[in-house]
Each structure stands twice: as C-alpha cells, then as structure tokens.
Amino acid sequence: MIEWRGKSHREHKFIISELINTFLHKQETGVEIGINEGQTSHHLLSNTGVHLYMIDPWKTWKGWSTQDQCDQDYVQVCSFEKEFPGRVTVFRNKSEDVADKVPDNLDFIFIDGNHDYEYIKKDLEMWVPKVRSNGLVMGHDWTGKYKGVINAVTEYFKQNDCILPPFKDYKNFNLEWKHTPAPHLDPVVNKSWPIGRVWWGIKK
Q1: 121 lies in a domain?
Q2: Engineered SS bond to 69: which of 65, 77, 84, 94, CB 3.0-4.6 Å?
Q3: 84-94 mean pLDDT
Q4: In this predicted structure, what is the pLDDT of residue 182?
Q5: Which has more confidence, 48 or 187?
Q6: pLDDT (tens digit per residue) in 151-183
Q7: What is the rounded CA–CA span in Å between residue 9 and residue 190?
Q8: Which residues of 98-111 are buried (b: 16+ CB within 10 A; e: fewer)?
Q9: 186 lies in a domain?
C-alpha cells in the first residue's frame, strides 16, 4: 500500500473525480500537468475509468523537494502502469515539450504544474485548444497565495471565448465538497472555494 507524504490539502482530488464522473462518462481521456508523488493521479485512476496522461519533469524547483525525492516520486508514479494497465501514460518532461505527443479532443485537463503566471498562461494556451467541446478544463490552487494562477486563468478566459459562462447550479450539480464562489472576486470560471481550491469550466 502506498504511503502518501502529502496527507493534507488534497481535497481537490475528490472534487476533480466528482466533476469527471458527473460531466463526463468515466471512460475518458485526460491530462494531468504536475504530478509530484501521484496522489491525485492515483485517486483519479482508482475512482474513474479514465486514461490519464501524466506530465511532470520531476525536477527540484524552488526548494519544493530534493532531487532524490523527485526521482523516488517518478519511480512510484511509473508503478501505476502495472496497477492500472493500459490506462497510464507517463511523460517525464515539461508540459510544453510533449503537447504534440498527446492526442487532441481530450475530455479533460487538470493543470497543477508551475504556479507562476507565465507558466499557467502557457499551459492554458497550449492545452485548452486540445480539449473537445463540452470537455472539462480544471486546475488547482485558486488562492491568494498563488496570484499567478488567479491572474492567468481570469485573463485567459476573458480574452478567449471558449468556456461556458459561470453558473450557480449547472444541471443541478451539487458538489459534496461545498462548491462555492470566492466572495471577493468575479472570475469567468467556477471554483470550489475555499475547500479544494479547484478552478474549472466546461469548454464550449
């Protein structure tokens, strides 16, 4: 049994799997950018029927982890291929280096890589066009700690008419984890705030 290091602040994995199972049909194909030890990935593979493209360079960054730990995380994530045969594709690369290796018409993306503004913006520009109509566009850490996430996401969706407008109760969707809007902002995407800190939208 896998022992996860990050046992807290992982509510987002429940939100993401519920979004996938509610709006998609479980047997779908998606991309997760930013894997770390693979806790979110493992949850998605265990609780949906998706084929998951997992993308992460597994390199130490800003003291986030040691390189030894990054290497151990990569080995652990690769072991998912045996546990979920035929449903896992792992890329040890930056996201921009493998976009052309992943098929178009994705059913969802989940962006949780480098949270700096320029990297979030680049991921949106590269990956949102690869999502099919009515697919899910999701990401993590909508919080004041990561202004780059808030600024890049809000800017992108205001400039690109590709996401359905915000809704209070789309198709009677009632998220178990208290999907509520942030009271001090008016973004063009929905959020699970403060629990989970997931930002998300449905592509036109």
Answers
A1: yes
A2: 65
A3: 97
A4: 46
A5: 48
A6: 999 999 888 888 876 655 544 454 544 444 444
A7: 19
A8: bbeebeeebbbbbb
A9: yes
Domain-located, residue 105: yes
CA 66/CA 122 separation, integer angstroms: 26
Assess contact for 10 and 90: CB atoms under 8 A: no
For the stretch 16-61, pLDDT in tens is: 998 898 888 767 999 999 999 999 999 999 999 999 999 999 999 8
Residue 167 is predicted with a pLDDT of 58
Tell the burial category of 155 from Cβ atoms under 10 Å away from its Cβ (0-12, 13-18, 19+).
middle
> In this structure, what CATH number is given to the domain that contains residue 191?
3.40.50.150
